[in-house]
Write a structure and sequence with these properties.
By secondary structure, this protein is mainly beta. The chain contains two helices and eleven strands, in the order ββαβββββαββββ. A six-stranded antiparallel sheet has the order 6-7-2-1-8-11. A five-stranded antiparallel sheet has the order 5-3-4-10-9, with no helix packed on it.
Length: 130
C-alpha cells in the first residue's frame, strides 16, 4: 500500500434528519445543526472547555447566568456560539470552516476532536478579468 495516501474519514453523506453537524469557522464561531441542539437538550447557553491531551473541545449546557456561559443563538436553520474568546485563549484558529467528523454526545455533554475534522469551505469562484 502506498504511504502517501490520505484516507477520507468522513464517509458518505447521511440523511439530513440523522446528520450531526458541528463546525468551527475562521471567525471562531461554533455552529450546531438542529439535531445536535436537540440532543443537547435545547440549551440557552453552553460552557466550553478544552482538553490538550485529546486536542478536543468539550461543551455542556449551563444556565446563561454563569460567567463562563456562551449564549446559543438561533441562526438560520441552526444555532451558533460566538466562541472567539475561548478559541483565542486555547489557540484554536482554523484557516477554513471545518466540520467535526464524529461529534461525541453522551447525555448532554459533547466532545469535538480537532484532529477529526474535514474542511467544508466552499472554494472561491473563478472570475474573469472583464
Amino acid at each position: 500500500m502506498e504511504r502517501d495516501i490520505e484516507i477520507f474519514r468522513a464517509g458518505p453523506n447521511e440523511a439530513r434528519s440523522k446528520r450531526l453537524n458541528v463546525t468551527v469557522s475562521p471567525t471562531l464561531t461554533i455552529r450546531l445543526n438542529r439535531n445536535v441542539y436537540e440532543l443537547l437538550g435545547r440549551p440557552d447557553a453552553m460552557r466550553l472547555g478544552y482538553t490538550r491531551e485529546r486536542d478536543a473541545i468539550w461543551a455542556e449546557p449551563v444556565s446563561p447566568r454563569f460567567n463562563e456561559a456562551f449564549p446559543v443563538i438561533p441562526d438560520g436553520k441552526g444555532y451558533r456560539l460566538n466562541a472567539a474568546p475561548f478559541c483565542r485563549h486555547f489557540n484554536i484558529h482554523p484557516e477554513t470552516t471545518v466540520k467535526f467528523v464524529a461529534p461525541e454526545i453522551v447525555g448532554q455533554t459533547m466532545l469535538l476532536k480537532l484532529r477529526e475534522t474535514i474542511s467544508v469551505a466552499r472554494p472561491k469562484r473563478f472570475r474573469t478579468g472583464k
